[in-house]
Amino acid sequence: MNAENTQKIKRLVLTGMLFATAIVLSVIEDLIQLPVAAPGVKFGLSNIVVMYSLFFLGGRTAFLVSVLKSSYVFISRGLIASILSLCGGLLSIAVMLLLLKIFKDRVSYLILSISGAIFHNLGQLIAVSLIYSGLVWIVNFPLLMISGVLAGIATATLLKVFLPAFKKLNLK
Which domains does the chain have, with CATH numbers? Predict the structure, then answer.
């Protein structure tokens, strides 16, 4: 087996491990009940994996992990939840990639994480408003923007905590 094939296999295995980690974090998050008024408000723990993928493996892997996460959501929670997951995830990654391209190394994980969380919520709001009605904006927009900032802070903080462990694994 040549070096190129070995790298492809390592990347495939790593992507599978990241997807599995995202599922585990999603299940853990589902067990945590947050006392909030809007349904669907979460910490976004599985987005730690997507952010790691984006920052260290590139946009293609981050998009793949996000699509795989949405597939899991389809199997475990149904079509609507999967559409919301996909719309939020893809918009979130696109915005973080754009910020990385514009600001390069001058943008922090915290800013990227908060932006990603806010746009994840916006992507979900857009999808919900297309599926149901525009009233969801009036009711949920303020709460989801605040929860996006808080979730972004939590996700960035947890990513910083886990980064030394990721680096020890030497998974690139």
Answer: 3-169 (1.10.1760.20)
